[in-house]
C-alpha cells in the first residue's frame, strides 16, 4: 500500500471502467466513509454501496480490491457488511 486510499481512488481511471464522473466521486466518498473508524458512518456507507452494486453494474470489479483492503481495518459488524458487498459483487 504505497499511498493512502483516497489518493488511489482519485488516480483511478473511472471512465475507462464505464463509470460517470459524478458517480465516481460519490463512490469515492462512500469508500472513504466505509473505511472510517466511526462505525455508524461506515454502516451507512455500506448500505448506500449495497444499493449501487445492484447487478448489472460496472462498479463491482473496480470496488472489489478496495473492499478487501478496507475489510482488513474494519470492526466486526462492518466486516460483515463488506462480506455482503463482496458476495453481491460475485452474483
At a glance:
The protein is an all-alpha fold.
Could you characterize what this model shows?
The chain is an all-alpha fold and 91 residues long. It has one domain (5-90). The protein has helices at 5-11, 21-34, 39-52, 59-71, 76-90.
Order of helices and strands: HHHHH
Structural class: mainly alpha
- Rg on CA atoms, Å: 12 Å
Mean pLDDT: 93
Using the alpha-carbon principal axes, give the shape. Answer: globular
Strand tally is: 0
Number of domains: 1
Topology diagram in text:
Elements: H1 5-11, H2 21-34, H3 39-52, H4 59-71, H5 76-90
Helix pairs in contact: 2-3, 3-5, 4-5
List keywords for this structure.
mainly alpha
Amino acid at each position: 500500500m504505497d499511498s493512502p486510499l483516497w489518493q488511489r481512488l482519485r488516480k483511478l481511471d473511472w471512465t475507462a471502467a464505464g463509470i460517470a464522473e459524478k458517480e465516481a466521486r460519490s463512490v469515492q466518498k462512500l469508500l472513504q466513509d466505509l473505511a472510517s473508524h466511526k462505525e455508524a458512518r461506515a454502516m451507512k456507507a455500506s448500505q448506500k454501496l449495497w444499493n449501487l452494486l445492484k447487478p448489472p453494474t460496472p462498479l463491482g470489479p473496480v470496488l472489489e480490491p478496495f473492499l478487501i483492503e478496507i475489510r482488513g481495518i474494519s470492526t466486526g459488524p462492518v466486516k460483515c457488511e463488506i462480506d455482503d458487498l463482496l458476495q453481491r459483487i460475485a452474483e
